[in-house]
Amino acid sequence: MHRARRGPARFDIADIVRAHRAGLERLRPLVSAQKRVLTDIAQCRTARLGGHVDRCESCGYEHPSYNSCRNRHCPKCQALAQEIWIEARRQQMLDVRHFHVVFTLPAELRPIARFAPRVVFDALMQAAQRTLVEVGQRRLDATVGATTVLHTWTRKLEFHPHIHALVTAGGLSTDGERWCSASRRFLFPVKVLGQVFRGKMMTALGCAYDDGAFARFDDFRDPQGFRALMARVARFSWNVYAKAPFKKGSHVLAYLGRYTHRVGIANSRLLAVSDRAVTFRTKGQGTETLSPVEFLARFVQHVLPDGLHKIRHVGLYASASAALRESARTLLGRALPTPPPSSWRERLARLTGRDVGLCPRCGGRLFSILVPRCRDPPTLAA
Hints:
Blueprint: H1 13-27, H2 32-43, E1 51-56, E2 62-66, H3 78-90, E3 98-104, H4 110-115, H5 117-140, E4 142-143, E5 145-153, E6 159-168, E7 170-173, E8 179-181, H6 190-210, H7 225-234, E9 240-242, H8 249-260, E10 270-273, E11 278-281, E12 287-290, H9 292-300, E13 311-315, H10 322-332, H11 344-352, E14 366-371
Antiparallel strand pairs: 1-2, 1-14, 3-6, 3-9, 4-7, 5-6, 5-13, 7-8, 10-11, 11-12
């Protein structure tokens, strides 16, 4: 099913950053990664980054286009990156049913995730991946394939780390001789997934604690603090949720693309922006209104540590498993898909519905004139 294209967003997070970043930095210190994200968002598609002017050879029409910042946290830079990623994954994805599984970090562990995000996020992703591979081996005697994506937000921009996993509904048998299909109704029992996930995550956190990753965390100044926390989280079931399967790999890619390059909030969700308040859509018909500084404070808490890979592949989808993946494809009788056109103009045409090389006024051919970077900061929007 094709989604209707949205019109241009009425408001831009970049304007909020330019107007209220100073107020945020007076309120709380920012780490270097957060500062860089705000700088990139403020400069994105402005003269500060340079660009080009498209000029029509026939009618003289001119239109400036400024360069994107390409920061993975920028809400304006994800559409083309997502399209490129989907093209690449189309060559890796098996055309079989997939399940969407969500692993959620318990609320009790969110404080240490804030304190040591790189350590906890890495442990969270590895625990989810190892859970899927291990349970697949136990239940199917097979290797499943999975792509996992880290998200850290709710629709209200609150801190809520969780993993989205798209998992093959079956796997390549241990002997490599057959495809072992999972149940048509469910992948694995979610209770079993939750138990294994809890065990692996607690083991990883224990190793991190022994290595001193939480040495300055206030709650662990008490020598029994960490053990008390682990005892609490060991007593309840951890939340693992599995959705109904997708029947075709093409549907999986379209669905997964919505998660891989999503940021905490898109410009299209902004409903009203003033000097005193920002209102945005949450879930369904719900809305949230915050001061601009509080809005930015919520936004920057989802900036990931430098170098942390938020998209990872495991099992049959791991980069080292190309031979196993092709064996599975052969057993399934599914040919490797033909790559679609991959020029940036063709990708952009698919996203926007128009040929960016043609004049929107007369249909003539456009040519580009380079615009160098401007040293002056971008002007504020009216």
